Amino acid sequence: MGAEDAAEKALNLLRSRLCNPTFIFRPLCDSPDSNYSKLKFIVSSSITEACNNSVLLLGPRGSGKTAVLELVIGDLLLEHPDMITVIRLNGLLHSDDNSAFKEIARQLCVEHQLLFSKMASFDDNSQFLLAMLRECGLAHKTITFVLDEFDLFTQGRQRLLYALLDAMQSISSQAVVIGVSCRLDADQLLEKRVKSRFSHRKLLFLPPSKEDLQRLVEHVLSLPMDSSLPHHYAAEFNAKLQSILVDNRFQEIIDSYWDSYPAIRHLAKFLFRAVSSLNLDLGHLSLDNFKTALPSIKRQPKMESLRDCSILELYLLVCMKRLEVKEQNSYSFSAVIKEYKTIHDSFQTSDYFGQNVCRRAFEHLLQCGLIGFTDGRAHNQGIEFRPVKLLISPSELTQGLKSYNSCPALLLKLCA
Q: What span, in angstroms and rounded, lies between the C-alpha atoms of 162 and 205?
């Protein structure tokens, strides 16, 4: 196998890995104390010991709740293919009790090859659910209810949650209710009658640490030594990768991306873009692959808006930054114009415009979202009197001015 063929095969292997959530999240499940192990024990105990369980998976978006849940369900479906049924609901779609019961009935009918009636009433669907729980329990088959956006199911009368948890008090039922939510206080939203039937098991998910992130990147991008790839090629590829991983410049790139998008699924997209730029002639990854991928995938809407601004609008933004340096947290259009006139008088700039033109530029900055009103209640006041503030950080403003093709040198000096 030629070097270019080996590189192309390695590229396809890495791309397939980065599109496979099961492969990406597997390293986070190795420890017996991991949420994967805890969740798998809770669900598997219901299957093997014919008991009922309920648990909440809580944590910020991007912390891996759904990915770990899918790993657990996938593994249990392989281990117990005829003993588990999975019903999935999402609070964004099924928070209404009537639609939730109808969707449960539909999925149960599909799973057990029964005829589903779209005209069935709320009571019909709820009775059907109870009957299916009883029949599946007698057949030692566990129904696993996955309630994504769990906190949205706590709105209203919570009849769905009560029906599920109350039915699980029966000795004949065999079910697991798994709630997934970004709200850490989701269990506190339950009514008293629902809360008394909930097991109060909670698994807290946190974003991966830097050490976890390092292991994850190494796990995803390292080539296997026992594959059909030439042994010497895989060894050289992995050695080059190790030298990149310990490079401080690589750490800065990863930290920069992670600060903006702290979610593994976004990191996988970034790594996919970096891998896709691999030079087949070179045959291995380089630091330039990651440098190139960063600006191409890291969206900066504020920076994009800056590139569409006029010189006058840039002057107004710099004036606002100078006012904030003077510890003015908010300021009116009049204060900005006063600062703009001060700059003109001090430096005798040629870029000076009248107040009406400045007002139109100010309104455009509001429309672009680069500045915003600090008080939403003063709608009856004129724009020139309402306090505003910058919605772009000083570093972003400085970086945007440097990348602006015809930015006056004075602005860069004033913004420094």
A: 26
Q: pLDDT tens digits for 62-83?
A: 888 998 999 999 999 999 988 8
Going by pLDDT thresholds of 50, 70 and 90, the confidence category of residue 416 is: confident
- Chosen domain end from 299, 334, 368: 299
**Cα separation, 240 vs 299, whole angstroms:** 29
**What is the pLDDT averaged over residues 190-199?**
91
Check which CATH number belongs to the domain holding 311 and give it. Answer: 1.10.10.10
pLDDT band at 55 (very low <50, low <70, confident <90, very high): very high
Are 40 and 179 within one domain? yes
Q: What is the pLDDT of residues 356-387, one digit of tens each?
A: 899 999 999 988 888 888 776 555 667 777 88
pLDDT value at position 90?
Answer: 94
Examine the fold and report which residue of 299, 330, 357 is the final residue of a domain before the chain moves on: 299
Q: In this predicted structure, what is the pLDDT of residue 379?
A: 58
Helix axes 210-221, 248-260, angle to 10 degrees: 110
Residue 268, pLDDT score: 87
What dihedral angle (degrees, nearest 10) is formed by the CA atoms of 282, 223, 236, 241? 80
With helix as H, strand as E and coil as C, how does 283-306 read?
CCCCHHHHHHHHHHHCCCHHHHHH
pLDDT of residue 263 exceeding 60: yes
Tokens of 369: 């979202």
Rg of the chain (C-alpha set)? 29
Phi-psi region of 403 (alpha: psi -120 to 50; beta: other; left: phi over 0): alpha
Indicate the angle between helix axes 122-138 and 159-167, nearest 10 degrees: 20
Grouping H, G, I as helix, E, B as strand and the rest as coil, residue 192 is helix
Best CA proximity match to 277, nearest among 292, 266, 264: 292
* φ, ψ dihedrals at 53, nearest 5°: -140, 155
In a domain, 227, yes or no: yes
From residue 196, give the alpha-carbon distance in Å to each of 29, 76, 98, 165, 166: 31, 29, 23, 9, 10
DSSP reduced 3-state for 110: helix
Amino acid in the structure at residue 325: V
- Residue 258 belongs to domain spanning: 3-18+209-299
Q: How many domains does the chain have?
A: 3
Provide the token pair at 147. Answer: 């309630």
CA–CA distance from 395 to each of 27, 80, 82, 315, 391 (Å)?
36, 54, 57, 16, 12
